[in-house]
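Sample pair:
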Amino acid sequence: MTTDHAKAKAIYESYLAREAMLAPRRDYARRVAKATGGTGQTPVEPLATMGSKGGPLVCDVCRKPMILEGGAYQGLFADEGWRRNPTKDWTSWISGGMVVRIETNGMLFLFHGYPGRSGCVQIADKAERQRRADFVERPDLMEILDQLSAYFAAELPEQNSDAVLNDIYRVLFKYDPGLGVNAP
């Protein structure tokens, strides 16, 4: 195996390890987005129980749970409202709004507020714009992708495709917004 192939193999193994770590979090992000999706009121159970280790979902900026609005649950965090009424399929308004975002890397991010208008989502958007502006792509990226392509052609021809190289690029070398604070 050439030195370039050894480097490419190490990069490919890093990609496989990163993908294995991300896969359950991407699945989790899809489940949370589906469970909390829709317009109007939000189902309380996922807000209260789908956060890290079965706790409440929390905002990625302030790290606080969503606050319920209206009726007997006015001003309560979602997990406290759920503790008081652990009944399936009840919904509530979210005080100040809530944004559920699946980022480009497939990770879940939640924010208090409304898109482009208010709350933690506005803070997060400003910080995200700055991080994206500061991101610098590796100057040797094309060389790395060429090494990967040569390695695949010689050692793993079934992996030698633009789709695989694009996925490696997306996972290892493209701007990464991070993992988010909520996890399965």
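The mean pLDDT is 93.
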